[in-house]
Amino acid sequence: MMTDGLAPQTWLHRVPAGVKFVGLALLSVLLLPVGDWRILAGALAVIAIVYAGFGRAGMARLSLLRPLVPLLVVVGGVQAASGGWNAGAVVTMRLLAMLLLADLVSMTTTMSALMEVLAPVLRLLRPLGVNPRKMALAVALVLRFVPVLMTRWRAREEAWKARTHRRIPPRLVAAFLADILQLADRVAETLDARGFDRSAADHHSPPL
Questions:
Q1: Which structural domain, as residue segments, surrounds residue 86?
Q2: Contact predicate 65/4, CB 8 Å
Q3: Transmembrane ranges (predicted)?
Q4: Are residues 37 and 90 in the same domain?
Q5: Distance of alpha carbon 100 from alpha carbon 96, whole angstroms
Q6: Which residues contact residue 122 at a Cβ distance below 8 angstroms, ignoring those fewer than 6 apart?
Q7: Which of 58, 93, 109 finishes a domain?
Q8: Mean pLDDT score, 39-49
Protein backbone atom coordinates (compact mmCIF):
# COMPACT_ATOMS: atom_id res chain seq x y z
CA MET A 1 0.00 0.00 0.00
CA MET A 2 2.68 2.48 1.01
CA THR A 3 4.92 2.17 -1.98
CA ASP A 4 5.01 5.84 -2.84
CA GLY A 5 8.26 6.55 -1.04
CA LEU A 6 11.56 6.77 -2.84
CA ALA A 7 12.72 3.14 -2.89
CA PRO A 8 16.52 3.70 -3.00
CA GLN A 9 17.84 4.89 0.35
CA THR A 10 19.36 8.37 0.13
CA TRP A 11 21.14 10.72 2.52
CA LEU A 12 17.79 12.45 3.14
CA HIS A 13 16.32 9.17 4.46
CA ARG A 14 18.93 9.23 7.24
CA VAL A 15 17.95 12.72 8.42
CA PRO A 16 15.56 12.51 11.43
CA ALA A 17 11.93 13.21 10.54
CA GLY A 18 11.70 16.00 13.12
CA VAL A 19 14.68 17.80 11.59
CA LYS A 20 13.13 17.52 8.13
CA PHE A 21 9.79 18.91 9.31
CA VAL A 22 11.46 21.83 11.10
CA GLY A 23 13.59 22.50 8.03
CA LEU A 24 10.52 22.41 5.82
CA ALA A 25 8.73 24.90 8.07
CA LEU A 26 11.72 27.26 8.18
CA LEU A 27 12.30 27.17 4.44
CA SER A 28 8.60 27.79 3.79
CA VAL A 29 8.65 30.82 6.12
CA LEU A 30 11.78 32.12 4.41
CA LEU A 31 10.25 31.74 0.95
CA LEU A 32 7.04 33.58 1.80
CA PRO A 33 8.41 37.18 1.80
CA VAL A 34 10.63 36.67 -1.27
CA GLY A 35 9.37 38.84 -4.11
CA ASP A 36 12.22 38.44 -6.57
CA TRP A 37 11.60 35.71 -9.12
CA ARG A 38 15.34 35.30 -9.67
CA ILE A 39 15.88 34.26 -6.04
CA LEU A 40 12.98 31.81 -6.28
CA ALA A 41 14.36 30.47 -9.54
CA GLY A 42 17.67 29.86 -7.74
CA ALA A 43 15.85 28.03 -4.94
CA LEU A 44 14.04 25.87 -7.49
CA ALA A 45 17.34 25.08 -9.18
CA VAL A 46 18.81 23.89 -5.87
CA ILE A 47 15.74 21.73 -5.20
CA ALA A 48 15.98 20.30 -8.72
CA ILE A 49 19.62 19.40 -8.05
CA VAL A 50 18.55 17.49 -4.92
CA TYR A 51 16.00 15.52 -6.97
CA ALA A 52 18.57 14.90 -9.68
CA GLY A 53 20.99 13.65 -7.01
CA PHE A 54 18.54 10.82 -6.30
CA GLY A 55 19.06 9.54 -9.84
CA ARG A 56 16.34 8.13 -12.05
CA ALA A 57 14.03 7.53 -9.09
CA GLY A 58 14.20 11.22 -8.19
CA MET A 59 13.51 12.37 -11.74
CA ALA A 60 10.62 9.90 -11.99
CA ARG A 61 9.23 11.38 -8.81
CA LEU A 62 9.34 14.85 -10.34
CA SER A 63 7.28 13.64 -13.28
CA LEU A 64 4.52 12.58 -10.87
CA LEU A 65 3.95 16.24 -10.05
CA ARG A 66 3.07 17.05 -13.66
CA PRO A 67 -0.73 17.06 -12.99
CA LEU A 68 -0.16 20.07 -10.73
CA VAL A 69 1.15 22.18 -13.62
CA PRO A 70 -2.33 23.28 -14.85
CA LEU A 71 -3.25 24.39 -11.34
CA LEU A 72 -0.01 26.38 -10.99
CA VAL A 73 -0.60 27.97 -14.40
CA VAL A 74 -4.10 29.06 -13.39
CA VAL A 75 -2.92 30.50 -10.05
CA GLY A 76 0.01 32.25 -11.72
CA GLY A 77 -2.22 33.53 -14.53
CA VAL A 78 -4.69 35.07 -12.10
CA GLN A 79 -1.88 36.78 -10.21
CA ALA A 80 -0.29 37.99 -13.46
CA ALA A 81 -3.61 39.44 -14.63
CA SER A 82 -4.05 41.42 -11.43
CA GLY A 83 -0.46 42.30 -10.51
CA GLY A 84 1.70 41.84 -13.57
CA TRP A 85 3.88 39.01 -14.86
CA ASN A 86 6.39 39.36 -12.01
CA ALA A 87 3.67 38.74 -9.41
CA GLY A 88 2.45 35.71 -11.37
CA ALA A 89 5.95 34.28 -11.68
CA VAL A 90 6.72 34.85 -7.99
CA VAL A 91 3.52 33.15 -6.77
CA THR A 92 3.94 30.21 -9.14
CA MET A 93 7.59 29.65 -8.26
CA ARG A 94 6.95 30.00 -4.53
CA LEU A 95 4.12 27.45 -4.59
CA LEU A 96 6.17 25.05 -6.69
CA ALA A 97 9.17 25.33 -4.36
CA MET A 98 7.00 24.61 -1.30
CA LEU A 99 5.35 21.65 -2.99
CA LEU A 100 8.68 20.16 -3.99
CA LEU A 101 10.14 20.65 -0.52
CA ALA A 102 7.11 18.98 1.07
CA ASP A 103 7.40 16.13 -1.41
CA LEU A 104 11.06 15.66 -0.54
CA VAL A 105 10.10 15.22 3.11
CA SER A 106 7.16 12.94 2.32
CA MET A 107 9.06 10.57 0.03
CA THR A 108 12.04 10.15 2.37
CA THR A 109 10.12 9.67 5.63
CA THR A 110 8.40 6.49 6.76
CA MET A 111 4.78 6.40 7.91
CA SER A 112 5.77 5.58 11.50
CA ALA A 113 8.27 8.45 11.59
CA LEU A 114 5.61 10.82 10.27
CA MET A 115 3.20 9.77 13.02
CA GLU A 116 5.85 10.06 15.74
CA VAL A 117 6.57 13.64 14.71
CA LEU A 118 2.95 14.70 14.36
CA ALA A 119 1.50 13.02 17.46
CA PRO A 120 3.17 15.27 20.11
CA VAL A 121 1.99 18.40 18.31
CA LEU A 122 -1.54 17.08 17.91
CA ARG A 123 -1.72 16.17 21.61
CA LEU A 124 -2.23 19.89 22.19
CA LEU A 125 -5.65 19.44 20.58
CA ARG A 126 -6.70 16.68 23.00
CA PRO A 127 -8.63 19.11 25.28
CA LEU A 128 -10.78 19.89 22.22
CA GLY A 129 -11.78 16.24 21.93
CA VAL A 130 -9.30 15.33 19.19
CA ASN A 131 -7.66 11.91 19.30
CA PRO A 132 -4.01 12.77 18.47
CA ARG A 133 -3.16 9.24 17.30
CA LYS A 134 -6.03 9.12 14.82
CA MET A 135 -5.34 12.65 13.64
CA ALA A 136 -1.63 11.87 13.14
CA LEU A 137 -2.56 8.79 11.13
CA ALA A 138 -5.00 10.80 9.02
CA VAL A 139 -2.40 13.49 8.23
CA ALA A 140 0.26 10.89 7.45
CA LEU A 141 -2.14 9.01 5.15
CA VAL A 142 -3.00 12.19 3.26
CA LEU A 143 0.69 13.01 2.75
CA ARG A 144 1.39 9.48 1.60
CA PHE A 145 -1.57 9.05 -0.70
CA VAL A 146 -1.21 12.24 -2.71
CA PRO A 147 1.60 10.79 -4.89
CA VAL A 148 -0.22 7.44 -5.01
CA LEU A 149 -3.32 9.10 -6.42
CA MET A 150 -1.20 11.10 -8.87
CA THR A 151 0.39 7.89 -10.10
CA ARG A 152 -2.98 6.25 -10.64
CA TRP A 153 -4.37 9.27 -12.48
CA ARG A 154 -1.30 9.45 -14.68
CA ALA A 155 -1.68 5.76 -15.56
CA ARG A 156 -5.29 6.32 -16.61
CA GLU A 157 -4.38 9.48 -18.52
CA GLU A 158 -1.59 7.79 -20.45
CA ALA A 159 -3.76 4.77 -21.21
CA TRP A 160 -6.43 7.09 -22.63
CA LYS A 161 -3.94 9.04 -24.72
CA ALA A 162 -2.52 5.79 -26.08
CA ARG A 163 -5.97 4.84 -27.43
CA THR A 164 -7.14 8.22 -28.71
CA HIS A 165 -6.13 11.85 -29.12
CA ARG A 166 -9.49 13.11 -27.93
CA ARG A 167 -9.86 15.14 -24.75
CA ILE A 168 -10.22 13.28 -21.49
CA PRO A 169 -13.95 12.64 -20.97
CA PRO A 170 -15.81 13.17 -17.68
CA ARG A 171 -16.42 9.42 -17.38
CA LEU A 172 -12.66 8.90 -16.97
CA VAL A 173 -12.71 11.28 -14.01
CA ALA A 174 -15.74 9.43 -12.60
CA ALA A 175 -13.91 6.11 -12.92
CA PHE A 176 -10.90 7.63 -11.17
CA LEU A 177 -13.09 8.84 -8.30
CA ALA A 178 -14.63 5.37 -8.00
CA ASP A 179 -11.12 3.94 -7.88
CA ILE A 180 -10.25 6.33 -5.06
CA LEU A 181 -13.33 5.30 -3.07
CA GLN A 182 -12.45 1.61 -3.48
CA LEU A 183 -8.90 2.35 -2.36
CA ALA A 184 -10.24 4.19 0.70
CA ASP A 185 -12.43 1.19 1.56
CA ARG A 186 -9.47 -1.17 1.32
CA VAL A 187 -7.36 1.08 3.53
CA ALA A 188 -10.16 1.27 6.10
CA GLU A 189 -10.50 -2.53 6.06
CA THR A 190 -6.74 -2.92 6.47
CA LEU A 191 -6.65 -0.57 9.44
CA ASP A 192 -9.62 -2.34 10.99
CA ALA A 193 -8.00 -5.74 10.43
CA ARG A 194 -4.89 -4.50 12.22
CA GLY A 195 -7.01 -3.48 15.18
CA PHE A 196 -6.25 0.20 14.99
CA ASP A 197 -9.50 1.15 16.75
CA ARG A 198 -8.89 -1.43 19.44
CA SER A 199 -5.43 -0.15 20.29
CA ALA A 200 -4.57 0.69 23.83
CA ALA A 201 -4.01 4.30 22.89
CA ASP A 202 -7.62 4.64 21.85
CA HIS A 203 -8.86 3.40 25.18
CA HIS A 204 -6.99 6.21 26.87
CA SER A 205 -7.91 8.89 24.39
CA PRO A 206 -11.19 10.62 23.73
CA PRO A 207 -12.87 9.78 20.42
CA LEU A 208 -12.08 11.89 17.38
A1: 13-109
A2: no
A3: 12-32, 39-58, 64-83, 95-115
A4: yes
A5: 6
A6: 130, 132, 135, 136, 139
A7: 109
A8: 93
